[in-house]
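In these records, each integer encodes one residue's backbone shape. Here is one protein:

___
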Amino acid sequence: MPKANLYDMAGKQIGEVELSESIFGIEPNQYVVHDVVKNHLANCRQGTQSALTRAEVSGGGRKPWRQKGTGHARQGSTRAPQWTHGGIVFAPKPRDYSYTLNKKVKRLALKSVLSAKAASGAVLVVDGLGMDQIKTKTFQGFLNAVEANKAVVVTSCANVVKSARNIPGVVTTPANLINVYDIVNANQLIIDKAALATIEEVFA
């Protein structure tokens, strides 16, 4: 059964915690993880890019010179793509890049990345992850004590969320909203002990 080190808020290791085999102990499926990360990035795209085609650029209504006898190549408009100030060929237009994946695929990808983090020893469990006041310096001290830099912190404590929001590379999330992309992008996964129980209950 996979295990993770248990820490207190002072950054001191106080024991170990057994992790759920069905969530943190499966064989990671890298192909499914790739699909889910690609889906996440596609869904984040705004898709607001836009350019004008030759039909939408102003001007160019008159033929610039007669068809024959000038020595120039024939031209029908000064707004054709080869002209300066002409339209764009196959101009990009606003579109929706998002698409959906099966729920079972996303669930498998999440279990895969959690298992990969657990296997590499990058899962840290904190007993009572919380703060009495909003203090970025205090939370940064905790991260330094557990030697975490680029981390996902799974907690529902509002003071922790607000204390961590100005720290570069640190992402906070509640247990029911953890996502594959954030975990893949992080070096460590720091989980409140109460949030760990929620993860094992929701995603089992």
User: Anything to note?
Assistant: Residues 176 and 202 are 7 Å apart (CA to CA). The longest strand covers residues 13-18. The chain has a mean pLDDT of 92. The two ends are 15 Å apart (CA to CA).
